[in-house]
Amino acid sequence: FMALYNLQNQFWVGNYAEAVTEAATVAATSDSVRIERDFYRMRAELELGRASTVVDRSLPSALQAVQLMAAFRSGELAAELVAQTLEEWLGDENTADNPLLQIAAATIYNRMGDWNKALVCLKSEATLEQ
Description:
Blueprint: H1 5-12, H2 16-23, H3 31-47, H4 61-74, H5 79-91, H6 99-112, H7 115-121
Helix pairs in contact: 1-2, 2-3, 3-4, 4-5, 4-6, 5-6, 6-7
């Protein structure tokens, strides 16, 4: 995961354009690295206003969550539908423990103003961002 360090750092400090550039240099040495790389790239693109708002159900749940975030922020999906989708994912034993999904869900709940749910999403504290 050392390959992701520069990408994450650029994202966390708000240098989104550089994060997108950095993502292009990260080799997908495994599925988990590819997913995490794409997670931060897609979030950086969202912050730059260039994210897809169509939720692609063929993608891993963490990446779908970024697309859900984009659709919510653009107003294309109502808060109720977004919250219902998050509840389904967070209640599913196959996706509930995914730290990237938890981060995306917490970010969405935070934007909705539901800080209690945002904090609950971060219960595992498996990553620095959590």
